[in-house]
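Board notes (copied after class):
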Amino acid sequence: MNGRGRNSFSCLKGKYLRIFGAPLMKIIECASEISVPFIVRSIIDDGLSQDGSHYGDVRYILMLCSLVLVFALIGFVFTILTQYVASKVSCDYGHDLRREVYSQFVSLSSSEIDQFGRSKALNLLSSDSFALQNGLFMFMRIFVRSPVIVLGSVVASFVLNLYACIAVVLALLLCALVVTVILLVTPAKYAGVQSSLDRLAGLTDDGVAGARVIRSFNKQEDEVALFEAESAAYQNRSDQVAKINAALNPLTFALINLAIVAVFYLGSFQFELSGLSAGSIVAIMGLLTQSLASLISISRLVTSLSKASASKRRLDAFLSLESKIQDGDKPLPEVEDGKPLLEANKACLSYGGESLAVDHVDFLLNRGESIGILGGTGSGKSTLLSLLLRFVDPNDGALYYGGVPYSSLRADDIRSQIAIVLQKAQLFKGSVKDNVALGNPNCDEATLQSALRDSLAEEFVSRYPDGVNHPIEEGGANLSGGQKQRLLIARALCSLRPILILDDSTSALDYKSDLLVRTNIKKRKNVSLILVSQRATSIKDCDRIYVLDKGAVVGVGKHEELLENCPIYAETYAAQIH
C-alpha cells in the first residue's frame, strides 16, 4: 500500500475532533478579553468620573474589578487547556508523521530513494516534519483566536464610537493587506530555501563520508569553497525570506499606532462633539492593543503556515511514491533438502541505460548447497544479489523461492530467510552484542558465542575487558577492516537464517582466516551458502560456481569443469595462484 492514498495529513486520522475543538475553546477566552475594556470603561466613566452615576461608590468599583479578575481567570483556564491540547496533538502528529516518512524511506528501493534525492529525503525527517508539526501547533493556538479578537475589537469599537471604529477598521484592513501580500510571496521562497538546504545537506554528507579521499587528493580547499558557495546561497535565500517577514511587525505596529493617534485626535475635541468619553478612549486603546497583539500572532501564523505549506508539498511528493516491489499474499513454502530453494529464470534488469546490468541470467540454489559466484567489477554480481533479496524486481524473466514466484510472496518473508554480509561494513554505535544480535533480537548467549567463534571474531572480542559489551563506534571506526568483516559474518550467523550470502565479505581477511571461516560455516547444518568473490581460490570448493561477465552467465559448473570450459575462470584462477 506504499504511496497509495497517503499524504502528510493521513497521520491526522483520529485527531480532528481535538484539532478543531481546541481552537473553538479559544472563543470563550476571546469573549473574556473583549469584555474587559467595556468593564474598564464603566469603571472610569461611572465610578471615577465626577459626573458618573456611581461616582465614589467603592463597592461598585470593587465589584467591577472583581468581574475583571473573573474574566481573566476564565481566559487563563481556557488558554492553558487549549495550549496543552495543541502541544499534545502537534507532538503526536510530528511523531506519527516522522514514523510514516521513515516507513516509506525503508520500504522504497535504493534506486527510488536516489531518484528522489537521499539528502532531500533525510531532511523530510527533520526540518520538513517539524515545520508541519509547528504549523499545526500554531493553527490550533492562533487560527481562531486572532481573527475573533480582531473582528470582536471592530464590533466593540463600533459599539463604543462610530468614528473611532472607522479608524480601527482602516488600520486593520491595511494590516490584513500586508499579511496577505506576505502570505502570497513567502511559500515559493520557502521552497527555494528548503531546496538549498537539501543541497547543503548533500554536500555535508559527501564531505563527511569521503573525508579520507578528499584529504588524500588534497582537495580540502576545493570542498570548502564549494560548501561556502552553497552555504552563501542558502544564507541569501534565507535572508530574503527573513527580510520579508521582518517587515510584518514594524508595518503592523505603525498602522495600529496611527489608529491610536486618530482616536486621540478625535478625543481631543469636546466629548459631546465626538461622543468619546475618557473611558471610551481607554477602552478603544485596549481593543487596539489586543488587535495589534493578534495581528502579530497572525503574522507568526502566516510565517509558520508558509513553511508548513512548502514542506507539505515535499512530504506529499515523497509519501505518494509507490514502491515498484508489490507484495503477494502466499505463504513461504517448505523446501526439502536437495530441492530448489532460490531460482532465477532468464532474469534481466536494466537501470535505465541501453545495456542490461543482468542479462538473461539463470541461477539455482538447492537447499543445503554452497554456490560460488565469480566476476570482475561491473559483471553484475551485486545486481544479481539485489534480485535474489528482492531489493529490485527484474524487467524480464522471473525469480522463485521454493518454486513459488517472488511476485506471489511478501518481500519481507523472502528476506527473513536470507542473511547477507555486504562488502561495505554496516556497523552501528552500540556494543559488540548489539551489532551481532541485530538480526536476531532474541539471541541467547550460546548462539552469540557460537557466531563469534565460527566467524573468528572471538579472537579479538575475548581480549576486551568488557567482552561482548565493548562499545563499537559509528561505522565501526574503532575496528580494523578484518575485525569489521568478522563481526558482520557473526551477525549473519547469529540470525540463524537458512540462506547465507557472503558478498566478497572476507576480502580483508588473510587466506588462512578466510579458509577457516568458510570451513566453520560449512559445518553448520541446514545452511545454504552463496559465496560471491573475486578470489577464485575462495569459491573453488563450492558445489557449483557461476561465472559472470558483463551481466551474463558465461560459465557454470564445478572448479575442475570451469578450468577446462571457461577461459575467464581459468585466467582468473591462474593469475591468482601465481
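Comment from the instructor: The chain has two domains: 14-319, 340-577. The first helix runs from residue 16 to 48.
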